[in-house]
Specification:
The protein has 2 domains: 17-130, Alpha-Beta Plaits, CATH 3.30.70.100; 138-208, no CATH class. It has helices at residues 36-50, 80-87, 90-97, 138-163, 169-195, 197-200; strands spanning 23-30, 56-62, 70-77, 104-111, 126-130. The protein is an alpha+beta fold.
Length: 209
């Protein structure tokens, strides 16, 4: 059982740059509370199938209370490509068809980008039957962001000094932040977190395995 707040999931447009980022999917489904045992067995069966697919990172489910008919099911893959493999599979179609008349889907959301780099979804009354990786320590997250921010700031400052030496403070800061934000969001941080994932999560370096 994990304690925390209900996850805030942000729908984002898909892009080629997002393909390399982990993707967390949240699906809200409605089930008659009297069928709780059946839905638990159905969830277990579905995610047993999903975990056999390449790129599968973990899953869990959220239910606000034992009397609620809402079930929030979460699963995570390491990229849009891996997720698409599961979602287009015959195994998933069979699994969904097996719950016809029992389960109704009302909302589906994906979480990628900055909110998905470090933290795993956390919620009230979550059964982590296949737990997702825990978020790395805050100080490691801060170091990772500094690693991305420092060289970019250095490069942008050098370019401004070379080509726009007379630019005022406010337009200089405005322009530099506008340029650096998308580069950090879609290029530098995803590359760093992927290459240093072992360090973020306290695992041995790849060359020591």
């Amino acid at each position: 059982m994990v304690r925390g707040g209900v996850p805030s999931l942000v729908s984002m447009s898909e892009s080629s740059t997002a393909a390399a980022l982990p993707v967390t999917v949240s699906v809200t489904r409605h089930v008659d509370p009297e069928h709780a045992d059946q839905i638990l067995a159905w969830i277990e069966a579905g995610f047993t199938l999903a975990e056999r697919f390449p790129g599968f990172l973990g899953w869990g489910w959220v239910r606000p209370s034992t009397r609620s008919d809402e079930w929030h099911m979460l699963y995570r893959f390491d990229s849009e490509e891996s997720l698409a493999g599961w979602e287009a599979s015959s195994q998933r179609r069979w699994w969904l068809d097996s719950a016809q008349g029992l389960v109704g889907e009302s909302r589906k959301e994906r979480r990628t980008g900055i909110e998905g780099w470090f933290d795993a979804p956390r919620a009230d009354d979550v059964e982590d039957l296949r737990p997702m990786p825990a978020a790395p320590p805050r100080w490691k997250q801060a170091v990772m962001i500094w690693f991305a921010f420092f060289p970019l700031s250095l490069l942008v400052g050098w370019l401004f000094g070379l080509f726009l030496p007379g630019l005022g403070l406010v337009p200089r800061v405005l322009t530099s932040t506008v340029l650096m934000t998308p580069v950090m969001t879609y290029l530098v941080l995803p590359q760093l977190t992927r290459r240093l994932e072992w360090w973020l999560h306290g695992r041995p370096a790849p060359w020591r395995r």
